[in-house]
Amino acid sequence: MSPRVSPREPAADLPAAIAPNAAQVSVVAVGHVDHGKSTLIGRLLHDSGNLPEGKVQELRAAAERRNVPFEWSFVLDALQRERDQAITIDTTRIWLRLDDREVVMIDAPGHEEFLRNMVTGASDADAALLVVDALEGVGEQTRRHALLLELIGVRHVVVAINKMDRVSYARERYAQIAAELSGILARIGIAPLAFVPVAALEGANVVARAASMPWYDGPTIARALAELEPLERGGPGELRMAVQGVLRRGLERIVVGKVESGTLEAGREIALSPGARRARIKTLEVWPPADKEQAVAGESIGFTLDAPAFVERGDIISDPGGAPEAVTRFRARLLWLGREPLLEGERLSLRVGTKLARVEVERFERIVDLATLELAAVSAVKRNDVVEVVLRAMETLALDPVTRHGALGRFILIRGLDVVAGGTVLETLATSTDLVPAGHLVSRTLREARNGHRGAVIWLTGLPGSGKSTIAMHLERRLFERDIAAYVLDGDNVRAGLGRDLSFSAADRRENIRRLGEVAALFADAGLVTIAAAISPHRSGRDGARAAAGGAFHEIYVKADVAVCEARDPKGHYAKARAGQLIGFTGVDAEYEPPIDPELVLDTATLTVEEAVERAFGYVVEAVRLERPFGADDFSI
Amino acid sequence: MPLEDLDKLEARSIAILREAYFRISPLCMLWSMGKDSTALLWLVRKAFFGSVPFPVVLLDTGMELPEVYAFRDELTRDWNLTLQNEDCPSEDTLDQTLPPATRAAARKTAGLRALVERGAYRGVIAGIRRDEQATRAKERVFSPRALDGSWDVVRQPPELWDVYHTDIPDGAHLRIHPLLHWTELDIWRYTEREGIPIVPLYLARDGMRYRSLGEKNITAPIVSNAASIAEIIAELAATHAPERAGRLMDNETEDAFERLRTGGYM
Asked: Which residues have C-beta within 8 Å of that of residue B96, sequence separation ≥ 6?
């Protein structure tokens, strides 16, 4: 406990001398406008001997020149316009020394209009000093600021019950406010460290103990602040690191980012999310070069991988056993800062970790009523409201609820060019009600630009022996030579693996075609020109494949009548069918439904193989050509 | 083993520099050869494994002390920097209502504006600190500047946690402040620990040294016997005098430095 010293004298036990290795602690000062924050900080600076020599005299002289009474808040209000308005319009920071503790006071405005500055200040703070006017008591701003401290993640709070001189230093009034505020803070989830009765104007219980309040034996403001500890953000626990990007050094690729929690070791296996892709760290990289075996929470680090892997900005690195959840929907609490109200169904940009994504406001859930701090039904969301909403992302995100990992459970929302909200992830949600397919991080357009051509499904249909497989294989070769990535999915070949569980019953044949169609569509989406060669006798089956491939489906009818095909009979199937050894053979005892309006017909009764292949090749090259060359803009992230 | 305070400061600055690099292009960094921007340059080399992947700009008024120019040439060579020496416009082209020393400093503002315009820079990295000066204390890490380079201190965007916002209109730019959370003492302790070179004028000779290094026409040395960084650290621990007391333009009139900064000064 500080020894008693007279007011206005720097305290003897608070030397200006700096012990260089004491941990610094940042304290944000918050509270209702006009409850005296700036006065308290000005007084604290002066009484603790932290003001530069002559500062107070200088400010007194300046006030005299302006013909206004001197106020302690002038110490902080360095900006001209602040003095004119007598309110603090933006956060400012003041460094001071309290015992062996270096304290950064972040002075945040109480005025509602500048709430964004208060949360900005709180974002950097380890703890908070909440100032309440003893005469006026707890105000709406007091409740709002307490609520926002919780949202931002500041849990250590010292309460100054100020202006005790205005309530005759009454212990009862102090106890009443302390009790009320205890209840409010407990409901929010904050356990205050101290309630200090203060008369900032006269320096009572700021640094010096106040003779006017002998009933109080707790710490002074200076003592309470000096005993604060820095907030350990992240720290031990599960590994989390958001990838900032990949740097090249010669042929090496160095992945860089900051370890948010846990540790990262050379040689360790990691997962990259979303997708929980596995990779193994080869080396940790620092400069100047050094052998480094481990990086701990808080460190900015680089690493190389032991094998090439797809890593990009926004990925989350974790232990393979403890990856963040991959979700598209989540429930969030927001502080809305936008000038215009938030709308249900509105689309905004979201930044979380190093990831930028688009989200949609699926629905409003509840709003915090600042009079009662209860959750209430919400109809409109205006500036400075605190609301709970369900957000739906346009792609899969790796997220943690804020209670699990602070760093990756906190985000901002952007509308146009403006930051319009800060928020926390309360809970991740299943995608069940609205199925949103997992979004690729590489768009189809980007893939096509890289490949130099579109992906497509070229579907060859026709009777057995019409020449589908022969044309398909030659076509694949021709496309390959033309630098077009092509691959044949032959009906018979696919049956050997993907359709291994299927018989030749009518139902299983339909299932076989369905699978072929789905796989071909995925290959096409992956950028390949996928040549599917299958009898596919039913229009419904081919239509299903067309639907699966979206607009990238091209049906080629390889036309030859039964007589021609039977004369060729390359696999001897017609002979077996005629002999009754194959039942349900298309063209013999099962029907073939020719296409009604195919993209291309190849009449193999009249065309040679070479002619048919050239026609197919000419068609495909045109069909997969990109309409325009892609410029650099298409690759910007 | 948990990180020490200097390690935490360093890690945060490196993360900010990498965010700037991966998000903003084109980018440049202001280097005055002072202790802060030289320490920052060291951090850039740490962030990018020895290289400095953007131009380093000196806003040159021709009024730096000779030792400062010598230091520039030495480090440019040794650290393989891409130096852009930007000559600032003369004083008579500037707002004549500014007091004389402030007007001299405003030459840098004009030089910076010309540089940003010509290079179409979207990001300018600067080594300012919050503890240096009251208006700098209100800065954001990623601080947007209007088309004319001016700073709208009243309408600054929120900056939450370390989720930085970098979206700005065409033609505007961001000032990036990776040292904002450092103090003067932190800089000296870090400079000593890392062995970062400094301009010798910071060390006392004949009982005088420069605590803050500016142009020769508007900067004054202080009385000091601190002849090593360790002695500077000891000296700072005992002083109440503000760091920029020797910078004439800060102190000419009450609002001189604020006028400089809202106009676009660093």
From this structure: B103
> Which residue does chain B place closest to A247, by CA atoms?
B48
- Same-domain check for residues A606 and A471: yes
A209: domain CATH number? 3.40.50.300
Confidence at residue A635, expressed as pLDDT on a 0 to 100 scale: 28
Cβ–Cβ gap B160/A352 under 8 Å: no
The per-residue pLDDT for A16 is: 35
Chain A with chain B: Cβ pairs closer than 8 A: 148
- CA–CA gap between residue A160 and residue A196 (Å, rounded): 5
Which residues of chain A does B134 touch, with a Cβ-Cβ cutoff of 8 Å? 78-79, 92
Query: The complex's ipTM?
Result: 0.93
| Structural domain for A170, as ranges | 24-226
Is there a contact between A115 and A337 (Cβ–Cβ < 8 Å)? yes
Residue B27's beta-bridge partner residues? Answer: B123
CB-CB neighbors (< 8 A) of A111 in chain B: none
Residues A300, B134: C-beta atoms closer than 8 Å: no
Closest residue in chain A to residue B47, using alpha carbons only: A287
Tokens (6 digits) for A267: 């040689």
Tokens 């004491």 sit at which residue?
Answer: A22
The pTM score is 0.74
- Residues B189 and B138 sit within 8 Å (Cβ to Cβ): no
Looking at the fold, whether A358 and A290 belong to one and the same domain comes out as no
> What separation in angstroms does the CA of A498 have from each of A487, A505, A577, B88?
16, 16, 25, 72
- Residue A338 domain-assigned? yes
Q: Which residues of chain A neighbour B241 with C-beta distances below 8 Å?
A: 52-53
pLDDT tens-digit readout, A198-251: 999 999 999 999 999 999 999 999 999 999 988 776 656 899 999 999 998 888
